[in-house]
Design goal:
globular, Rossmann fold, alpha/beta, 7 strands, 16% strand
């Protein structure tokens, strides 16, 4: 049981995850930045936080691997204290293509990180936060995507389906642990300027599609981070099982 606010952010080395980690640290959270490959980027986030008087660590973990997830949370226990919040932000996508061009291995890779990984991280968080397990409660925010609503036809059907699963998981887990001091919510970002679009083969994708947004612009990672931190805050104390669209009205 910890007197500190301790947050684990998966995919915390860049984009929405990095913005969330920095904003949380500025608000007094101790933060673990979990990352897969980008050690230099994760270390830079830690350095930025430390330079402003915050406390942060970076931990390498492949969240699709159960042993990695277990060790991630154990390391947080040792170095920061038991987690009182989790942001399930880590996700992956692959090159834009139609379903009839995808092989099974690609689909498994997407689902293993985006769905299995998020569920494993949430499991470890619940084991620490739930009053049923002797915890003091806490909050979980799952980062979904507007793709869950629109399906990403011709581009990322597998990614969109994985985020639809995250929406369902958010609602179900929220109801499962509502009496145990844990609130579970989601954010559904729209077109946000992050490096993920380059991974899909179109770095300037947001500029191409921003006219589909009523506000006629893409969003910034900080705009999503503020919604996440509000959901984790006492101001959202009666909010659980809710998915907040951060999408410029789309």
């Amino acid at each position: 049981m910890s007197e500190f606010k301790i947050l684990v952010v998966t995919g915390g080395s860049r984009g929405i995850g990095a913005a969330t980690a920095k904003l949380a640290a500025a608000s007094g959270w101790r933060v673990c930045i979990a990352y897969l490959n980008s050690r230099d980027a994760a270390d830079q986030v830690v350095s930025d936080i430390s330079s402003k008087g915050g406390r942060a660590i970076a931990v390498q973990a492949d969240i699709s691997c159960e042993e990695n997830v277990v060790e991630l949370f154990r390391q947080v226990d040792r170095e920061l204290g038991g987690a009182t919040a989790l942001v399930n932000n880590a996700a992956t996508l692959e090159t834009q293509m139609r379903l009839d061009s995808m092989d099974a291995s690609r689909i498994v890779r997407i689902l293993s990180t985006n769905v299995l990984g998020s569920m494993l991280c949430a499991r470890e968080a619940v084991r620490r936060m739930s009053t049923k397990h002797g915890g003091i409660g806490g909050g979980i925010v799952n980062v979904s995507s507007g793709a869950a609503k629109y399906g990403s036809p011709g581009e990322y059907l597998d990614y969109a389906a994985s985020k639809g699963a995250i929406d369902t998981f958010t609602i179900g887990l929220a109801r499962e642990v509502a009496e145990e001091g844990i609130r579970v919510n989601g954010v559904r970002p729209g077109f946000i300027y992050t490096e993920m679009h380059a991974k899909g083969g179109e770095p300037q994708r947001v500029d191409r599609v921003k006219t589909l947004v009523p506000m006629q612009r893409g969003g910034q990672p900080d705009e999503v981070a503020h919604a996440i931190l509000w959901l984790l805050s006492p101001e959202a104390s009666y909010v659980t099982g809710t998915i907040v669209d951060v999408s410029g009205g789309r």
